[in-house]
Amino acid sequence: MIRRTLTGLILSTLAATATAIAVQAPVAHAACTSIPANHDPAVIVMVYRTARSLNVNDKVMLSGFEAGWVESRMNNLPCGDKSSLGVFQQRWDYGWGTPEQIMDVVYASTQYYSRAIVCDRNNPGYRPGQIAQCVQRSGFPDRYDQVESKARTLWAEARRVAETAASASTDVTGDGRDDVLTFTQNTLADVYVAPSTGSAFAGTSVKWNDFFALGGETARSGDFNGDGRDDIVAFTHGTTGTAAGDVYVALSTGTGFTGGAKWHDWFAPGAEVPAVGDVNGDGRDDIITFTHNPAGDVYVALSNGSSFGAGVKWHEFFSPANEYPAVGDVNGDGKDDIITFTQGPASAADVIVGLSNGSSFGPGLKWHDLFAVGAELPRVGDVNGDGKDDIVTFTCNADADVYAALSTGTGFAGTTVKWNDFFCTAGEFPILGDVNGDGKDDIIVFTKGATNDVYVGLSTGTGFLGGAKWHDFFGLNGETTL
């Protein structure tokens, strides 16, 4: 089994820093004439993923967002007071690293959180703002606690992007029924599966892999070798170090996952948002990444059954920052297409589709003009069993409504229709999957929190039945569930 850890990277980085500091000559840096009023969406995602990779607790996580907002408005600034640089305004001449290292958001975040972990351990009663001050040693120590509300908002946004999972296939046993998976993403990095029996998820979850998808990596599932059983994939995302941009796959045997093997060595780096789908229609799932920045590029690496080919640009402007990307076969031709939910207010909550022709995605066309408003959680799946993927949105608030818009092959049926009026409350995590094998995707929710239950609402083709508990302990807080 191939094992990957950030410990070695952190230690080597710190050693390199010490060496660099010893030989670093004075460098002049410009003071910032202004700081952007808004955060950089890519920066908050990389800060979040780095914190997850170090398995920080919620208090330490929040401290980093407080520090980042106070110091730079969460922007990777090439300027600052005296020798300060980057998102945390770290100084090369105070032992933080070389200027080049500090301007790497992953490196800078690792430096911040490594120190914050120690501070929290030594001072368990500290508030997040006090931890930030312990690390930053600011002349204005009260500023960090004062921005807690903003920091929580940024943290929630970063988590939302990092956990984007609008579509996924999870039939890991190959019996035609989707199962549920959870990745612990902690120091153990275990993967557990609860197979579907058609009326429940098997009572005691079983460990299918004991070291896969470390904290900060993105875990997904798909049938990459075309054997009818869904496998698991992990995107490491790093921008530097030995694991930068790697993609690992662990194949399903039907009763477990094999050891992780590297299938690609540079894909979905940094803050990009990866996805899985069979975009060329050959029966094997491929990997897709959305740069999710102002360029809005989309790259694809096709599966040959044992590895992914070179990343090739299939679209040059789709799902820029703040939109919610997805993949699904919306016209029923056997090739997965790209979808993006703009997620604006009611006046601008559009759904755009780029159809796959097998070698690229076509121009983005509006398929719906009012769906998945604001912070709703959109999903993609074939809920009526006609072979074309539809769109579903969960309000995940006090109303807990679920709406669906069916695909006609050229658009999503105009007026959204409520398919369930109480499913997925605040803090819960919804997905779609055909759990009873009838060809129609159902709704599934992981309650998280204190209960850690899994509920299912079966699709009738025109609505979802009331939620029924299919598992009473699966997908704990901090774990990634599919």
Supply the helix-strand structural class.
alpha+beta
The helix count comes to: 8
What is the number of E strands?
26
Q: Could you tell me the strand content as a percent range?
A: 15-25%
Q: Record the strand order, biggest sheet.
A: 5-4-3-26
Fraction of residues in helices? 10-25%
The CA-CA distance between the termini, in Å, is: 23 Å
Mean pLDDT: 92
Q: If you compute it from the alpha carbons, what radius of gyration comes out, rounded to the nearest whole angstrom?
A: 22 Å
The shape, in one word, is globular
Uncertain stretches? 1-28
InterPro entries: FG-GAP, Integrin_alpha_N
Organism: Catellatospora methionotrophica
Keywords: Signal
Protein name: FG-GAP repeat protein
How are the SSEs placed, and which strands pair?
Elements: H1 7-23, H2 41-53, H3 58-72, E1 84-85, E2 90-91, H4 99-102, H5 105-122, H6 128-136, H7 143-146, H8 148-162, E3 180-183, E4 191-194, E5 206-209, E6 218-222, E7 231-235, E8 247-250, E9 261-264, E10 273-277, E11 286-290, E12 298-301, E13 312-315, E14 324-328, E15 337-341, E16 351-354, E17 365-368, E18 377-381, E19 390-394, E20 402-405, E21 417-420, E22 429-433, E23 442-446, E24 454-457, E25 468-471, E26 480-481
Antiparallel strand pairs: 1-2, 3-4, 3-26, 4-5, 6-7, 7-8, 8-9, 10-11, 11-12, 12-13, 14-15, 15-16, 16-17, 18-19, 19-20, 20-21, 22-23, 23-24, 24-25
Helix pairs in contact: 2-3, 2-5, 2-8, 3-5, 3-6, 3-8, 5-6
Which features would summarize this protein structure in a list?
four-stranded antiparallel beta sheet; 482 residues; alpha+beta; globular
